[in-house]
Amino acid sequence: MRAKLYRFASENDPPEWKERGTGDVKLLKHKEKGTIRLLMRRDRTLKICANHQISPLMELKPNSGSDRAWVWNTLADYADECPKPELLAIRFLNAENAQKFKVKFDECKEEVKKQVEGSGNTDSANKVAEKLEELSVKDKASEGKKEEDKKETEKNEDEKKEVKADKN
After folding, report:
1. What pLDDT is recorded for position 134?
2. Which residues on neighbouring strands pair with residue 36, listed in sequence order?
3. Do residues 136 and 110 both lie within one domain?
């Protein structure tokens, strides 16, 4: 769906909306992880102008009385390679496309919310717990080796002392 993307440049004096690009906006779902991200590329250059994950906390708000534009916050937009928080606005050709986008965006938000609340969260917690158990076992094993090494060096030192005492 074609749209025009803007970002809020708060570093300017006075702060203003700057155009990021015009192009097709896509909502892409990761096949394995189930995460959903918003990706938008500029028409001619195909340079990325928006690239961030959809989170359950994101909220589309109408832009200053326009029925064909939406505003939202993202915590980490990767359009400029390094992630940074952005206030973004998107404007469509007509109100119908804007409503379609909002419906799809909200569906994606709900899907991500279900995934976070569902089994994905407990699975990752279980994986972390298993890794922690492995770490503690490795630590104990390495501690045992350290103690053995320590005893062996003490034994060698005692033998050296005995040899020196015998020579005297």
Report:
1. 72
2. 29
3. no
